[in-house]
Amino acid sequence: MTDLNLQNEAIQLSEKIRGNIDGLKEEDPLKTWFNIELDMIGVGKEDAALSLDEANARMRALNQLLHLVFKHRLRLQNPSLIGMQVDHNASLLTVEATVPSNVLESARNLRFSIEPALLHDPTQDNEQFDPVSPTAKIVGYLRGMDRTLGLVEAGRFKAEGEELLSKAGIDDPLTRASMAVLFQSRYRTINAAIASSETPQVVEFASGISPRGLQWSQMSPGTIYVESDLPQLMIHKAKLIRNTLMESSHESRGVLHCCSVDVLDRQSVLDCLGSLNADMSVSVVTEGLLLYFGEQEMRQFLSNMRALLHEFEDAVWVTDFVAKQNLQELFASDPGVARGVKQVFSMTGRSVVPSNPFEDDSSVEAWLNEFDLQVDRKFPLQSTTAMLNFDVPLAQEQRDRIVGSRCIWCIKKKPTT
Ligand SMILES: C[S@@+](CC[C@H](N)C(=O)[O-])C[C@H]1O[C@@H](n2cnc3c(N)ncnc32)[C@H](O)[C@@H]1O
Predict the structure, then answer these.
(1) If you average pLDDT over every residue of the chain, what do you get?
(2) Structure pTM?
């Protein structure tokens, strides 16, 4: 079915954006990027009739682009607006665009936004460089084996994950399913932990190619989901998400915002708070990140988390800690899985097991205490293993042996006395 009014609106909006882009200087690098974006999503008079879903999707993407062009032009007109200073002589529109609650409001209307810097960063603009690590591709592939999750995984990463597993000699379907138990139960248990915290805002760091942000915002109207990773990765991820959103129609979605954050850089971590409402509660999520940190990185990271959690009255950090004891349990659970996991670790080029700073759960708690943090609740991975669905039969006992005593941890700041 076609809606000609909607198509006309999309044509007019495309022309308006083109006019705004034309006004930018030729040497402005963003001009090229905005034009590329508009060529992909714009609607012209000569275009064939669009389906209603397609026209709606284009309108959403066009509104997002208009917002980005508008913000960029404002910044060019008044460079001092970078940051939060408000010029008392500025026009109402200019002031509104610098106040976080209004930026949030406009993101809420559009329901999807990309940090403008991600659209063009000359230092990261290298198509030859693959920002997705082999481990992230393998995790993505194994997680996507659970079809009941209905994941929207990018086809290319799936094929590459499969190829990497084969190259590592992990071909046996039972071993693959057993390894998948780890990642699928981790994903589901983290979802359960976030849901139980009932926060209207979620920030995920190091999200990689995980589809959680997309799924969460599709299923939770009225919420805000900020997802982030290093800029090299987020540049690609944000566009993948945008393309996925354009292919489908979601009448009521939560807000999804993509930005770049380096979790080892305090300023970068705190900067992402500009997209959130500090008066509302928040869940902060990290998944599959901490296992690769040695002692020094862990100290820097925990100190950044302390700073972040103390910015909010009510904030919970949901994460997976993996201590040496958990790894020993895992290696003893199944010889195929032990071999597979060790292969994946070797792909990271890091000495994952010897560098792990935690002996067991009690040493994790001692570290948290040192950084003024404490455990609020723990959710065992075993609570979700029965829900997983594989092509090969996998006994419940085997599933539980693989995840062992591993838990998802919910961590809060210690109350000030
Ligand atoms: C093993 S992947 C896990 C990805 C995702 N959370 C998942 O479960 O599929 C680890 C991710 O951490 C990201 N990462 C590594 N160092 C980081 C840093 N300093 N700041 C933010 N992200 C980082 C990588 O880019 C990668 O996407």
Answers:
(1) 83
(2) 0.78
